[in-house]
Design goal:
By secondary structure, the protein is an alpha+beta fold. Helix content is 18%, strand content 28%. The chain is built from five helices and eleven strands; from the N terminus they run E-E-E-E-H-E-E-E-H-E-E-E-E-H-H-H.
């Protein structure tokens, strides 16, 4: 059995439906029941299934907030982008119907949804003690069944992806081209050098010797560019650092 994963996010597709031809109504499923999904995590991949009734307690206590990109978009911020009209469980999953606010900040999001450039919806949730069970499946992978979950917020996202609080770099790289992967690896290498306070791991003079000693000649690390100076928040948005 794994330790509690803390706050997680999951993503699904949704559709925009026009009411009165204003294009401000979102409708779809924030979660789907009884659908095993492979979750890529740094602690090891596992399958996950959300069971019917998993959100009953949470919805009875409070209504989640509707945000864009989990409130992390630098322009929109954490301000809600609309109001949830209805959020309920049916045989398929957690169905949501919401209305976007009519203001200049939300308008670009509405246009992107209307143009079908944004098709994903993600929700953030936590699982209380006893709210999930873990079993070992044939083949070795674990299966997580979620029976009780607290939904904190949900809303449209540009790049929907299944992730946990410990996001897999492997799953992120699969959606990048060769140039993007190379740039990302350079950024990660720079961050690791800073975190470990290392200067040179290439084997040139100045590198640490195999027995752990230091050579007499040292080399300065290559200059860190502005691109490499990414703070924790930016890295988390890209799925690189673990969120706690």
């Amino acid at each position: 059995m794994r330790a509690n994963l803390g706050t997680c996010t999951r993503s699904f597709t949704f559709e925009a439906r026009s009411v009165g031809d204003d294009g401000r109504t979102l409708e779809g499923y924030a979660a789907v029941f009884n659908t095993p999904t492979r979750i890529a995590a740094t602690g090891g991949d596992f399958d996950e299934t959300i069971l019917p009734g998993a959100f009953t307690r949470s919805l009875a206590q409070r209504m989640p907030v509707l945000q864009f990109e989990h409130g992390r978009d630098p322009r929109v911020g954490a301000v809600p982008i609309g109001a949830i009209d209805s959020l309920s469980e049916d045989d398929n999953g957690l169905h949501v119907r919401a209305r976007l606010y009519d203001n200049p900040v939300v308008e670009p999001v509405r246009q992107a949804i209307a143009g079908q450039s944004i098709k994903g919806m993600s929700f953030r949730f936590g699982v209380p003690d006893g709210g999930d069970t873990w079993t070992r499946q044939r083949g070795g992978l674990e299966l997580r069944e979620i029976r009780d979950a607290d939904v904190h917020e949900l809303g449209p996202v540009v790049f929907p992806a299944y992730d946990t609080t410990t996001v897999s770099v492997r799953s992120l790289l699969s959606g990048m081209d060769a140039e993007e992967r190379a740039a990302l690896i350079r950024e990660l290498a720079a961050e690791l050098r800073l975190a470990a306070d290392l200067t040179d791991l290439t084997g040139r003079s100045g590198a640490r010797s195999s027995d752990g000693g230091d050579s007499t000649t040292t080399h300065e690390a290559p200059p860190i560019t502005n691109r490499m100076r990414l703070d924790d928040g930016a890295l988390r948005l890209r799925g690189i650092l673990n969120a706690h």
